[in-house]
Amino acid sequence: MKSALVLGAGGFIGGHLVKRLKREGFWVRGVDLKFHEYAETEADDFVIGDLRDQAFCRTVIDRRFDEVYQLAADMGGAGYIFTGEHDADIMHNSASINLNVADIAHKRNINRVFYSSSACMYPAYNQENPNDPNCREDSAYPAAPDSEYGWEKLFSERLFLAYNRNHGMANRVARYHNIFGPEGTWDGGKEKAPAAICRKVARATSDDTIEIWGDGLQTRSFLYIDECLEGTLRLTRSTFEGPVNIGSDEMVTINQLVDTVADIAGKTIHKEHIPGPTGVRGRNSENSLIEEKLGWRPSQTLRQGLEQTYSWIETQVRRNTPASV
After folding, report:
1. What is the mean pLDDT of residues 138-142?
2. With contact defined as beta carbons under 8 Å apart, do 111 and 218 qualify?
3. Catalytic: which of 69, 80, 122, 149?
4. Catalytic residue at 310?
5. What confidence category does residue 325 fall into, taking pLDDT thresholds of 50, 70 and 90?
6. Which CATH number is 180-221+250-284+301-316 given?
7. DSSP secondary structure string for all residues of 41-100
8. Tell me: domain 3-179+224-246, CATH 1.10.10.10, correct?
9. pTM of the complete model beyond 0.90
10. Distances in Å between the alpha carbon of 322 and those of 196, 232, 289, 317, 325?
């Protein structure tokens, strides 16, 4: 039986990845600071601990695994990443994890680790026009991410690829673009835009007004979790090291995202635009390289993914809403 190690298995993407690997017949060890908040883990072995601790990292990377997925990071949505209040933690925590994982995997003779980078590492100067952002993989330099989160992701990309060059490893690097779906953070300040909007619409009644950060004209693309997993596994098992975008190229404004969720909910929703962290003006996945190298690109529409995500978040909202007296 093949074995897999999922670091960050208590998180949104990691939890779904564990399920996917189990369906493929893998024995899976999951590692995280916490158990998954919204679903029982399907991992055969789940270890709670801190991957910033090198000694702990050695205890969980204790053998050769057939596949290793490094998803563990200190991260969140715009309200967490772009305020500047968490920069030191984000950089220290995530870099410490990646330094430990890369080195211990090498010393355990694990020659391939999948590393999840982020589109946040792309230069801010290429993302000022919301209608025509440039997120081609070769546009990464001269480097100028718009957040310390993006700088740390760029550093860690280079770290894993340096281990390829210097130690004969075959690590794989993907740049995720706004992954969303059920069983992800939907409240509390670390949720991303699709989840936050689904929550606000679910809590609203028809003809209510919800708050949106900025003018709502900033553009993004959002990739449903199942598509993310497919791209991740294809890259990990391929001969291409990356970095490569894993994201949708269906670009929408945040206002359009709100309108789509409202339509799914069957509600008339008004928008109040307020000051808040918004990140770059435009970002969209450029998928020519992944199609060339892997013969694949995401195909599911944003609406299809939002329908499933809204249904799940609406259920969470109902469960967490006190009954009226």
Report:
1. 97
2. no
3. 149
4. no
5. very low
6. 3.90.25.10
7. ---SEEEE--TTSHHHHHHHS-S--SEEEE-------HHHHSSSTTHHHHHHHHHHHHHH
8. no
9. yes
10. 20, 39, 49, 10, 9
